[in-house]
């Protein structure tokens, strides 16, 4: 098995195709639900804080399970893991589709998340072991095209379905496709895996779950609950302490659940930092643009989704192109050019006005997505390329976990910055208006106008801060070097022992 992994004669295209279809519907499902949340609130009679658990809970399950996928990939075959993931995802989809109370819908959503959490690291690991380093960029580019297409069509498709049908159709639409993919996997996937004598460390799993779960929940709750809420700072503190214990425990184990030794390889460590920083900046667009177009400009959710569509499509179709360019030129040139575009367009987004045109927003967002498409996949692939094959499951699990964490931190940071700026600006504008009005109370219309102007200032300031966050990634990109597989530390130590024994024998 190991030999086959290191020197594959021909990539298992059938296996990869089935995995990609499974990952695609899981990603599509993630992007479908956001626009339907208001409809779910009305139909199931729940408030905003409650309905947000459909996204927060999904993220938490991912954050808890993804670190464990490094163990699962080493322990079980691709067939076993894929079928288990698809059974969980399909069952959850059916439960959610027929839910008539919120608790049942949440259970279905979390079952979907448990299947989705396994699919992504599994697919990335198969891609790494199936293609040599010199062809890996193009392969990862196709992988990016499939996965970027889901968020490209998701919001628009969701808006159309919710506008014409019940929100449950979002799940009924996915259900037959999930069943078909499950059947394809059952009949097509035939890989076998030699049994590995490794056991799951339950203590590590507990500390990992509390650690990553606490950090994710704390940061994701900060935007709505505020940083002074004990739900926020206590969960973050408990999460950080648990993560510290988890990391120390992993370092002391011969077969760690999640091997933090991946960070001893400099290009992987650098890639992780760049993608985390860029993730935080990227969330400014995903979070702030919809707020601007719907709250300030009054654009409908359907039109807001259509506005984001060209950028998402550009990101999807650029993925295979950047993959081929990565194989030819490496990640550094692509990352620098892409980050210059990202930094510039993010800065221009900090100059939004009350009358910024729809066309201007579409073009600016599309160019920004073009820049990001030149960074994410090439930088991640370059980092993974430096890992010895034994570290692949740990590298893919670590990447996906850090993406979850950085996304939560970025969202919390930007929401806090926007809220604080909006509040302070609103107070200043209200004082000025009252002075100009001779100290008299302001009308509701005047207060509403002040509220919109303050919100605009908050959004612009958040984009301005995002510009500096993206600039950090740009500076780090100059240190990228084309990575080749490093020697496994265990193999190096074995060679050193052999050389020492030879020297002793010669003496």
TrEMBL record:
Annotated keywords: Cell membrane, Membrane, Transmembrane, Transmembrane helix, Transport
InterPro entries the UniProt entry points to: EmrB-like, MFS, MFS_dom, MFS_trans_sf
Q: Which GO terms describe its cellular component?
A: plasma membrane
Topology with respect to the bilayer: Multi-pass membrane protein
Which Pfam families does the record match to this protein?
Answer: MFS_1
Q: Where in the cell is it found?
A: Cell membrane
Q: Where does the record place the Major facilitator superfamily (MFS) profile domain? A: 15-485
Q: Which SUPFAM superfamilies match?
A: MFS general substrate transporter (SSF103473)
Q: Which GO terms describe its molecular function?
A: transmembrane transporter activity
Ranges annotated as spanning the membrane: 12-33, 53-73, 80-107, 113-131, 138-157, 169-188, 200-219, 231-248, 268-293, 299-317, 329-349, 461-480
Entries under PANTHER family matching the protein: MAJOR FACILITATOR SUPERFAMILY MULTIDRUG TRANSPORTER MFSC
UniProt-listed NCBIfam families: efflux_EmrB
Give the UniProt family note.
Answer: Belongs to the major facilitator superfamily. EmrB family.
What is the protein's given name?
A: MFS transporter
Q: Species name for this entry?
A: Cytobacillus horneckiae
């Amino acid at each position: 098995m190991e030999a086959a992994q290191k020197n594959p004669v021909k990539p298992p295209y059938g296996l990869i195709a089935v995995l990609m279809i499974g990952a695609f519907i899981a990603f599509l499902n993630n992007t479908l639900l956001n626009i339907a949340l208001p409809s779910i609130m009305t139909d199931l009679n729940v408030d905003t804080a409650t309905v947000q658990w459909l996204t927060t809970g999904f993220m938490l399950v991912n954050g808890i399970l993804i670190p464990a996928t490094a163990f699962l990939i080493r322990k079980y075959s691709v067939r076993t893991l894929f079928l288990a993931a698809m059974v969980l995802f399909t069952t959850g989809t059916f439960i959610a589709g027929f839910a008539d109370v919120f608790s049942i819908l949440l259970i279905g959503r979390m079952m979907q998340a448990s299947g989705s959490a396994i699919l992504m690291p599994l697919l990335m690991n198969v891609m790494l072991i199936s293609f040599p380093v010199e062809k890996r960029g193009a392969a990862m580019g196709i992988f990016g095209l499939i996965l970027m297409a889901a968020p490209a069509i998701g919001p628009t498709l969701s808006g159309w379905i919710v506008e014409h049908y019940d929100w449950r159709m979002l799940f009924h639409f996915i259900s037959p496709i999930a069943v078909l993919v499950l059947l394809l996997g059952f009949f097509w996937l035939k890989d076998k895996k030699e049994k590995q004598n490794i056991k799951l460390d339950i203590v590590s799993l507990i500390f990992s779950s509390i650690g990553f779960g606490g950090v994710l929940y704390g940061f994701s709750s900060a935007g709505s609950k505020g940083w002074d809420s004990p739900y926020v700072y206590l969960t973050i503190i408990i999460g950080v302490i648990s993560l510290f214990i988890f990391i120390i425990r992993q370092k002391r184990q011969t077969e760690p659940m999640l091997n933090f030794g991946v960070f001893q390889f400099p290009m992987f460590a650098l890639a992780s930092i760049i993608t985390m920083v860029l993730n935080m900046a990227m969330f400014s667009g995903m979070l702030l643009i919809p707020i601007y177009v719907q709250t300030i400009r009054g654009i409908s959710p359907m039109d807001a989704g259509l506005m984001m569509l060209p950028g998402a499509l550009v990101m999807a179709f650029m993925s295979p192109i950047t993959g081929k360019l990565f194989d030819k030129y490496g990640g550094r040139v692509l990352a620098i050019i892409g980050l210059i575009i990202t930094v510039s367009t993010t800065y221009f987004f900090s100059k939004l006005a009350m009358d910024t045109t729809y066309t201007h927003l579409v073009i600016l967002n599309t160019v920004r997505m073009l820049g990001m498409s030149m960074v994410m996949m090439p930088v991640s692939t370059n980092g993974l390329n430096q890992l010895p094959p034994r570290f692949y499951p740990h590298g893919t699990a670590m990447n996906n976990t850090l993406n979850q964490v950085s996304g939560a931190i970025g969202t919390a940071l930007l929401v806090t910055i926007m809220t604080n700026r909006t509040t302070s600006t609103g107070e200043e504008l209200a004082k000025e208006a009252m002075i100009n009005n001779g100290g008299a109370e302001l009308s509701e219309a005047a207060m509403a106008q002040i509220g919109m102007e303050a919100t605009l200032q908050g959004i612009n300031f958040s984009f301005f801060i995002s510009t500096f966050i993206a600039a950090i990634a740009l500076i780090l990109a100059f240190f990228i070097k084309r990575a080749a597989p490093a020697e496994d530390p265990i193999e190096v130590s074995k060679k050193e022992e052999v050389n020492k024994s030879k020297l002793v024998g010669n003496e």
